[in-house]
Amino acid sequence: MSKKKSNKKKNTKQNKTPKNNINTKKVVPKKVKKEEEKPKKKIKLKFTNIILALLILYIIGYFIYLFVTLPITNIYIKGNSLYNDLDIIRIAGIEKYPETFVYTSKKIKSNLLKDALIKDVKITKKSFTKVYIEIEENYPIYFDKTKNVTYLSDGTYLNDEQFDVPILNNEIPKDYFDAFLKGINKVDRDILNRVSEIKYDPDSVDEERLLLTMNDGNYAYITMKKFSALNDYVDFVKEFDNKKGILYLNSGEYFKIFE
């Protein structure tokens, strides 16, 4: 009897359906908290900071002002003989040593080129306040007695102004004027200063022949194309012990002594 009971108990235990032991929990989403926007801090400038900033700006501005208003301190000039240094400074407009940034190199050059006796100018500034002026002169080469004008090296002329230059006593034909001007420009200035008078004196051989009267009492025949031969004038004269005569440079280059 006891065995049967025990079997029943076992069967009843086996027929029982097992309970689901899985615990299902509801996932509750966490609430995402929005980051609260932080209020922007207002920058408060202190009074001392403002004063300091203004002081720095003032100092910077003051030094800029001093730099811009630097005056010309030194002026160096070369290449001038017709004008002395003070004349060049006056013509350039810088006699009062103005601000170097106001009177630019371009302005100084422009002022100088307005003068007829100045052909070209080179301006150089060093250390901002030192100005170097190099002059190329448009020097006078002869006085035309027939027109009462002084011709300059570039072919222009000045009315009623006579410098210490050779005097042309008669007129050069228009067909030969350019050759004459080109030729006389080839003569060194110190040699040209030895010429007192020029005469257009053509012959049957050469239509461009000229007769020069020299300051030392000699004469010289020359052609417009051979004007540069006059640069050896001093050496020619020395060969004849400074005796007086006529130097023929138009052909043959020989010296005829006066008897």
Kindly describe this structure.
The chain has 259 residues and is α/β, with parallel strands linked by helices. Strand 2 and strand 3 form a beta hairpin. It is elongated, with a radius of gyration of 51 Å. A 9-stranded mixed β-sheet has the order 6-5-4-7-8-9-10-11-12. Strands 1-3-2 form a 3-stranded mixed β-sheet, covered by helices on one side. It starts with a helix and ends with a strand. It is built from 7 helices and 12 strands. 29% of the residues lie in helices and 24% in strands. Residues 1-15 have low confidence and may be disordered. It has helices spanning 2-15, 47-68, 85-92, 105-113, 174-184, 189-192, 233-239, and strands at residues 74-78, 118-126, 130-137, 140-144, 149-152, 157-159, 167-168, 195-200, 209-214, 219-223, 245-248, 254-257.
Write down the Rg.
51 Å
Structural class: alpha/beta
Outline type? elongated
Along the chain, the helix and strand elements come as HHEHHEEEEEEHHEEEHEE
Distance between the termini: 193 Å
| Percent range of helical residues | 25-40%
Question: What profile does the largest beta sheet have?
Answer: 9 strands, mixed
What is the overall pLDDT average?
84
Task: Report the uncertain regions.
Answer: 1-15
The counted number of beta strands is 12
Strand content: 15-25%
Strand order of the largest sheet: 6-5-4-7-8-9-10-11-12
Query: Number of DSSP helices?
Result: 7
